[in-house]
Amino acid sequence: MGRFLDLTLAGLTSGAVYAAVALALVLIWRSTRIVNFAQGGMLMVTTFLAYTVVSHGGSYWLALAVAVLSGLVLGAVVERLLVRPVEKRAPLDAVVVTFGLLVLLQGLAGMIFGGTPRSYPPGFGITGFRVAGHQLLFSPNDLWVILVVLGVMAALAVVFRRTSLGLRMRSAAFAPEVARLLGVRVGRMLTVGWALAAVVGAIAGVLIAPSTFVSPTAFDATLVFGFTAAVIGGLDSPPGAVVGGLALGVVLSYVSGYLGPDIVTFATLVVLIFVLMVRPSGLFGTSAGRRV
């Protein structure tokens, strides 16, 4: 029973990390109808900047602020310079651009920061809570990760459902021509969408960093798990991204603990295929056409 509880708690923690990445993917999809495969590279860059602050004596909170601000700028620049020129072309063009951007960012990070993995300090203690004489594999830092992800999810849900900004972003993504007739600055909304998604990704990078080493390719697997979580929950549902991330984290934790860590990647593929076959739009998603 103790092993099952430890695996469940460990799965919730890793699942929260996947959910954070999934939230960033969902935000871009909801605002621009593009799957951003460069998200892993973008959060890697912002995490390296945060690491630079920490390595020079800055606090965890200052590094987090730097990551958020740099993500805001990076997201806006990427949309303006790389995505906008291809946004009216075939949908595959934007996907190719994001793949190219991922390779470019990883190459630049390798040249600037080197390929040596770096350790990143956690925001809170990593010693597990002790309950009834049993030390859980669940620490204050794990609790911090889960609370931040839930908070980000709630904030995104409020933005998209309760604010005029969210309504304009959604209208710009689904019906740009109609939105322009109604006075919506479609180009500006797309930029805002990418900027906010990069901010969420930057937060995810800082949350992930203490549990892995920071390097140009350290977040590739996390991006795959995050994308799977987004598909499970539904690419247009922030709550679905969180539920999908937590569910995937728990399932993979059980697979790793009971069957072995070597088949975790295979299990992820099985889960992804199963969801696409049973419910292609995800557990909380709705079917909708892509903007052309």
TrEMBL record:
The keyword Cell membrane applies. Pfam families: BPD_transp_2. CDD domains: TM_PBP1_LivH_like (cd06582). One of its GO terms (molecular function) is transmembrane transporter activity. It is found in: Cell membrane. InterPro entries: ABC_transp_permease, BCAA_transport_permease. GO terms for cellular component: plasma membrane. Keywords: Amino-acid transport, Cell membrane, Membrane, Transmembrane, Transmembrane helix, Transport. GO terms for biological process: amino acid transport. This is Branched-chain amino acid ABC transporter permease. It comes from Amycolatopsis bartoniae. The gene is livH.
